[in-house]
Amino acid sequence: MTMGTFLHGLRARGKKKKRGAGAGRPPGGEQRIAVIGLGRFGSSLATELMARKWDVVGLDESERRVQRHRDLLTHAAVADATDDEVLRQLGVHDFSSAVVAIGSDVEASILVTSNLLEAGVPNVWAKAISRQHGMILERLGAHHVVLPEHEMGERVAHLVTGRMLDFIEFDDDYALVKTVAPSVATGVPLGRTGVRNTYGVTVVGIKRSGQDFTYATAETVIQPGDVIVVTGRTQAVESFAELD
Ligand code: ATP
Question: From 3.40.50.720, 3.40.30.10, 1.10.150.20, 1.20.210.10, which CATH number describes the 3-147 domain?
Fold first, then answer.
């Protein structure tokens, strides 16, 4: 998963048990975000957000890590984010979002998340390194909890074991899959293939070799070798992608 996909995921999917007021980019409003912890995850996230014109304030207790980000972010500071006074001085209560990108120090991750919620940050994202960690963060009230390693692992497992070229699972057991078209979908207009009734999936896009992706209609005739994008219940799209 690219960081772009992940960022899109931050807005569109994920373990969103509770949504804060206007998750993601505030429409026409302040786009200021605090990224707490500038390890691999926090660093990629922060630099990608900068590329998307967000105002990013990074915080890390490591001088070395902060030094590395000084010229990349709007502002980067060395501090222990478990100290709520530090967060107050940083003005986090005025930020539209904050991401707790601390993983291995679970205690620090919980404390910082709790401080940000206490400060009233409307969108608190927290990274978890295990399901238990994620559960605690959700119970604490974090608006969005992500488990990058687990989610990536699940996704790669789908790609490794199947014929899929790409796989994205949304909430509620719904998935979007990119795969080479099985023969049941080829040769006749899509509307006549019966894939929706028979397999419970909808073909939404098609890519012929050397051409761009385009949307699919009932009249589209898929050729063998075409790459298609299919949506539906996870189990249904998985089974469909396994067909020859
Ligand atoms: P990654 O996989 O993203 O590299 P990780 O899951 O291993 O990170 P950590 O290394 O524990 O997570 O934390 C990421 C960053 O958070 C580190 O740069 C670390 O210095 C910073 N960090 C940890 N605790 C705090 C804290 N209390 N205040 C500020 N920064 C912290």
Answer: 3.40.50.720
